[in-house]
Amino acid sequence: MNNKFILETVLVGSGKTPKSWTNKEIQKYLGSETPAHDYVNDAAACIEALEELGQFSYLRPTTDGKKVCIFDFNGEIHVTVPFSKESHALATTLFFVLENKSRLT
């Protein structure tokens, strides 16, 4: 009996560290009624925003100590590229979700 299976995933992120422009883009998608946050450096703010969108993600360490964020979006498993900070992986996830939800609606 062969118990092997293949899990296909979608890789998210360019490998570039999120910067202040990422915060501006996230804020643009969230709207002016949402208080501004430094999402790039605040993992808790990212988690809260993702949960408000009904999006749950899981942070996991890589073998070299970096962090990736794993999440389901539109029925597909997505994984961010590895980042040195949890907040960077989460901000990348939040930006991806917001950008792609706006395309779906």
How would you summarize the topology of this molecule?
Blueprint: E1 9-12, H1 20-30, H2 43-52, E2 57-61, E3 67-73, E4 76-80, H3 86-104
Parallel strand pairs: 1-4
Antiparallel strand pairs: 2-3, 3-4
Helix pairs in contact: 1-3, 2-3
Descriptive notes:
The chain is α+β, with helices and mostly antiparallel strands. The protein is built from three helices and four strands; from the N terminus they run βααβββα. The chain has helices at 20-30, 43-52, 86-104, and strands spanning 9-12, 57-61, 67-73, 76-80. Strands 1-4-3-2 form a four-stranded mixed β-sheet, with helices on one face. A hairpin with a 2-residue loop joins β3 (67-73) and β4 (76-80). The longest helix is centred in the last third of the chain and has 19 residues, at 86-104.
Cα radius of gyration in angstroms: 14 Å
Model regions low in confidence, pLDDT < 50 over at least 5 residues: none
What proportion of the residues is helical, as a percent range? 25-40%
Number of strands: 4
Q: What does the main sheet amount to? A: 4 strands, mixed
Question: What is the global morphology?
Answer: globular
The separation of the N and C termini measures 44 Å
Series of H and E elements: EHHEEEH
Widest beta sheet: strand line-up: 1-4-3-2
Please state the structural category. Answer: alpha+beta
Range of strand content: 15-25%
Tally the helices: what do you get? 3
* Mean pLDDT across residues: 89
Characterize this entry briefly:
With 105 residues, this protein is α+β, with helices and mostly antiparallel strands. The chain is 38% helix and 20% strand. The radius of gyration is 14 Å and the shape is globular.
